[in-house]
Design a protein that fits this description.
single chain; about 400 residues; six-stranded antiparallel β-sheet; 29 strands; globular; disordered N terminus; binds beta-D-glucopyranose
Length: about 400
């Protein structure tokens, strides 16, 4: 009887021990990597935290075809975008992290983020408005990039509407924040539509004249974010006969140059890798493509960009009412750590950005379309990323 009891007790203790160990190892794994599976929405628990006294969360939108978009209100970031490949398998086509900690601590600041007050560069962070000069935060050598060191990509946005297919984020950028004039009230909505498109609509009003250039900084890889294949095999077509060449610090010279026949000619679909290694001063400055393309006149329902992965067959079309697009071929990604989704390192040219925008440094370039917003007007732009397979 006693022996039997002892045996039973040992058995129960054994079970406890095993469960406890499993829990610890599971917990350990989870704190390091929220979700070791690529092509899955991260565990929302790893985004639940208070930042600047505001609640951060991860929100998932889903359409009738099973396409999913995960967005966090920390930086208004698109964290995951799962779309079907040519075999119907869901692939996450944007780079990002599986937990908030990585977004806050790791060096790559802009993954999937909303960018403002001024997307891309302002030379020396200086401009003049109504005869008054402004100095904004300088964070890229002598220049200002993506709104300064504490741009919108680091701010907690308020969630003002959320339903299964739409998330509305609001942010009040105060007068003087990062050096910019005017209290700017911004509303951005992400809408996942049943035609497998993700629309980002930007709306803003100011109480003082200011400059504004909002965009999203998603890094796309249509082979999959966790894929070993980079983006140089993607076929890219850009509806742009011209681009804005830059100086060695990536500030536009003010010229608008034809792309005809050269490395920047994507008027018909071409593999990104085809000319990227060409001996070309502009490619040298960008360490690859990192340039603003001047979009040809187009209707709102005509794509300005078509991108295709020959491996997955995933095709993305970009629609926008902006005059330009920054094509950045991920030349500064270094793959220094394995903190990417599924534990991968995001290597050199493992993703690309297509940032719809007004041209860089427009506040100092009278020949470029104006980025001035006055209190009498409202800012409104719309960009849509639409997916299908080929
Ligand atoms: C810029 C690049 C910059 C990158 C940072 C792009 O929009 O054009 O020069 O390195 O953002 O992620």
């Amino acid at each position: 009887m006693r022996k039997k009891f002892l045996k039973g007790a040992l058995f129960v203790a054994g079970i406890f021990f095993t469960v406890a160990c499993n829990n610890t190892s599971k917990h350990k794994q989870s704190t390091e990597s929220a979700n070791s599976l690529p092509n899955a929405i991260p565990d929302s628990a790893f985004f639940n935290a208070k930042v600047d006294n505001k609640q951060v969360k991860l929100y998932t939108l889903k359409n009738k075809n099973g396409v999913e978009a995960a967005i966090t209100n920390y930086g208004g970031r698109l964290v995951s975008l799962l779309v079907p490949d040519k075999e119907g398998k869901f692939v996450d086509v944007v780079l990002g992290y599986e937990n908030l900690k990585n977004y806050r601590e790791l060096k790559e600041n802009y993954f999937g983020a909303l960018i403002g007050r001024y997307g891309n560069r302002i030379a020396k962070g200086r401009f003049t408005l109504n005869g008054k000069s402004y100095q904004v935060n300088v964070n890229d050598g002598p220049n200002s990039l993506h709104g300064g060191a504490n741009g919108y990509f680091k701010q907690v946005w308020d969630v003002t509407k959320a339903n299964g297919q739409m998330l509305e984020l609001t942010y009040l950028s105060k007068d003087g924040e990062e050096g910019y004039p005017g209290n700017l009230k911004i509303i951005v909505s992400y809408t996942l539509k049943d035609d497998n498109s993700l629309e980002i609509a930007y709306h803003a009003t100011t109480d003082k004249e200011t400059v504004i250039n909002l965009t999203n900084h998603a890094y796309f890889n249509l082979n999959g974010a966790a894929s070993e294949e980079g983006i140089t095999n993607h076929l890219l077509q850009i509806n742009a006969d011209a681009y804005t060449p830059v100086d060695s610090l990536l500030i536009p010279t003010g010229k608008i140059e034809t792309v005809k026949g050269g490395a920047f000619d994507f008027t018909t679909a071409k593999a990104i890798g085809k000319d990227i290694g060409m001996k070309d001063r502009q490619l040298g400055y960008g360490k690859g493509y990192d340039h603003n393309f001047v979009l040809n006149k187009h209707r709102d329902d005509e794509p300005v960009v078509t991108l295709l992965s020959p491996i997955t067959g995933i095709q993305m079309k970009v629609f926008t009412n902006e005059p330009g697009i920054q094509f950045y071929s991920g030349n500064f990604l270094k793959g220094e750590d394995k903190n990417g989704k599924g534990g991968v390192a995001y290597k050199y040219r493992s993703a690309l950005c297509l940032e719809t925008q007004h041209f860089p440094d427009s506040p100092n370039q009278p020949g470029f379309p104006s980025t001035v917003l006055s209190p009498q007007k409202a800012y409104h732009t719309v960009t849509t990323y639409s997916f299908n397979t080929k």
